[in-house]
Amino acid sequence: MATGRNHRPATRSRGIPEATVARLPLYLRALTALSERSVPTVSSEELAAAAGVNSAKLRKDFSYLGSYGTRGVGYDVEYLVYQISRELGLTQDWPVAIVGIGNLGAALANYGGFASRGFRVAALIDADPAMAGTPVAGIPVQHADDLDRIISENGVSIGVITTPPGAAQQVCDRLVAAGVTSILNFAPTVLSVPDGVDVRKVDLSIELQILAFHEQRKAGEEAASADSGPDPAAPPVRAATSSRKGPDGDMPAVMPA
Ligand SMILES: NC(=O)c1ccc[n+]([C@@H]2O[C@H](COP(=O)([O-])OP(=O)(O)OC[C@H]3O[C@@H](n4cnc5c(N)ncnc54)[C@H](O)[C@@H]3O)[C@@H](O)[C@H]2O)c1
């Protein structure tokens, strides 16, 4: 378990571009589904379609892993699952602490998908004394006063912040001081962290705002085309608005801080 403050993921030191790292979980999700169906091999085109990624980009991404597939056969599904899991550091257990066990923190604690992906919810922490000792998802909530001890006792290197925004920076500082080097921030605030600490933020309202922008644009284009009648030279409305959002496109669902 790497818990040092200056720990950097091996992927970066091995020179894999950040955009490729962001697509690896998409490949892994598609490959895991194939593996569950006992599919032995997959072509780059099939896998690219399943992951929602362009196939040339997929082949380039896999070349960073040293994985080139076999002509006419494709990629070995099980081996790729192993390779990508290893590259992402998922072949080891990552104890995670969630801080702020309200609506969102409790929902995340109850989400079964983390454990199957190598993330074990090791501790739940909240500042509300009334919550101390109360089990959520079978794990007793611990008081925030004991944060340092909880982090070190559980070897936590990934902290999830689901507190109100006003508390997030202070919680972040305490997590970092306790040795946490990666933070997933759900609070709608920008966190400052020292070098060597990685922060990712998730904001569903930003994603919804981007969808609202596209909805508005589609509605405007439809109104304009209704006003002017059909124009054979105009591109189809769908084609103009179907830009992909995600690690293959321009707006990842989980953003660097
Ligand atoms: N990223 C997203 O898409 C998304 C979606 C929903 C909510 N949120 C954000 O997630 C956060 C939590 O939302 P919620 O609805 O669960 O709120 P909530 O009020 O239900 O829960 C917040 C919890 O944090 C605890 N808390 C407050 N200060 C603390 C501190 N210093 N240390 C430890 N615990 C502390 C509170 O006791 C409470 O239990 C908010 O910042 C909200 O804006 C983000």
Automatic annotation (TrEMBL):
Coiled coil: none annotated. Residues 89-190 form the CoA-binding domain. Keywords: Cytoplasm, DNA-binding, NAD, Repressor, Transcription, Transcription regulation. Residues 26-65 bind DNA. Signal peptide: none annotated. NAD(+) binds at G100, I101, G102, N103, L104, G105. Homodimer. Belongs to the transcriptional regulatory Rex family. Modulates transcription in response to changes in cellular NADH/NAD(+) redox state. This is Redox-sensing transcriptional repressor Rex. The lineage of its organism: Bacteria, Bacillati, Actinomycetota, Actinomycetes, Kitasatosporales. The gene is rex.
